[in-house]
């Protein structure tokens, strides 16, 4: 497979007046896809961090993840060829390619983010999200599903799309699935819920799992914490 670095394309947006990191594109809220991982862990974290503006220090695991991620990106770029999104799509129909840190965005669904790695072959597209462990949680599954949705919408490509989770820093793909109509329906439902939170139509729900609360960075700030 050839390494292809997809050039980031600028786009126009407005900042949300009160929610940090929410962008307004074509009159619709647009949130980072990574928030779906946080939402599956505890929705209330999103409220505390981005609506109340509470800042905490990054955990050791977060810092390590950033470091490993940077190392992988640096290694990839050593022999990567630069190309546009459409150029890579077209060339991959004849020759398999790998791309990292591919930016995807959908104004219609109100999501955006950077995909860790994509394999594009003449027959299929595999969208990979790297995680520190080797267990597929609903939250991490939702995140990679949203990447698949945004990629499908942005590309209009008819090849089979697969979502996959890989243990960070290894070749261990420990979970994968076809991004079919049923999966697409499920992630659209979750994304709609996220938008209803930001629009104030529904309340943010805190986790009921005390083990999550014990390890939460926002524990001391959370009025919902029962510890």
Automatic annotation (TrEMBL):
Residues 38-222 form the DUF83 domain. Its cofactor is iron-sulfur cluster; Mg(2+); Mn(2+). InterPro entries: CRISPR-assoc_prot_Cas4, Dna2/Cas4_DUF83, PDDEXK-like_dom_sf. GO terms for molecular function: exonuclease activity; iron-sulfur cluster binding; metal ion binding. One of its GO terms (biological process) is defense response to virus. Keywords: Antiviral defense, Exonuclease, Hydrolase, Iron, Iron-sulfur, Manganese, Metal-binding, Nuclease. Mg(2+) or Mn(2+) required for ssDNA cleavage activity. It comes from the Archaea. Belongs to the CRISPR-associated exonuclease Cas4 family. CRISPR (clustered regularly interspaced short palindromic repeat) is an adaptive immune system that provides protection against mobile genetic elements (viruses, transposable elements and conjugative plasmids). CRISPR clusters contain sequences complementary to antecedent mobile elements and target invading nucleic acids. CRISPR clusters are transcribed and processed into CRISPR RNA (crRNA). This is CRISPR-associated exonuclease Cas4. The lineage of its organism: Archaea, Methanobacteriati, Methanobacteriota, Methanomada group, Methanobacteria.
